[in-house]
Design a protein that fits this description.
Elements lengths: L5 H9 L4 E7 L5 E7 L8 E7 L3 H8 L2 E7 L3 E12 L2 H7 L17 E15 L3 H15 L6 E6 L4
Antiparallel strand pairs: 1-2, 1-4, 3-6, 4-5, 5-6, 6-7
Protein name: Pyridoxamine 5'-phosphate oxidase family protein
Pfam family, one: Pyrid_ox_like
InterPro entries: Split_barrel_FMN-bd, Stress-Dev_Protein, YdaG_split_barrel_FMN-bd
């Protein structure tokens, strides 16, 4: 592992994730997770998503802005807690636009149904298996043979003063 702060480590891990599960509370106060594509690779405490304005998660965050995001790969996992809001910023929508987004919004970035969702992180917890897939496999096998716990890095990080 490199010499980084826990916050920088969270940012390093997040840049490798493409998809997130975005958890809200629905009208019945039940937790519901929605799959979303992470639009920006540089994590500075905020994550951006392009969503349908008519999606249930938009109604959920209008009722309760507190949300959770989980991201995972074969050898690392990140859980974020924070708030979300729908933001009006056509320039940001166009900045984040990509051919992948067109699969959901065929009318382009000016489609009135395209919503810009800003997630502001307050805290994070991550688990990382140093060394990638092969090291993860090795640690798993070592754990099974020796009975010692799986070798993984875990830390909880406060990201804002909220």
């Amino acid at each position: 592992m490199t010499d980084t702060t826990p916050t920088q480590r969270v940012a390093e891990l997040i840049k490798d994730f493409r998809f997130a599960m975005f958890t809200t509370r629905n009208a019945n106060d039940r937790l519901v997770s929605h799959p979303l594509t992470v639009q920006e690779a540089e994590f500075d405490g905020d994550l951006w998503f392009l969503v349908s304005r008519s999606a249930s998660l938009v109604a959920d965050i209008a009722k309760d802005e507190r949300v959770g995001i989980s991201l995972s790969s074969n050898d690392s996992w990140v859980s974020l807690s924070g708030t979300a809001e729908l933001v009006e910023d056509k320039a940001k929508v166009k900045e984040l636009w990509s051919p992948t987004v067109e699969a959901w919004f065929t009318n382009g970035p000016d489609d009135p149904d395209v919503g810009l969702l800003k997630f502001s992180a307050e805290s994070a917890e991550y688990w990382d298996s140093p060394g990638g897939k092969i090291a993860s496999l090795f640690s798993f096998v070592k754990s099974k043979i020796t009975g010692e716990p799986y070798d993984a890095e875990n830390e909880t990080v406060e990201l804002s003063g909220k």
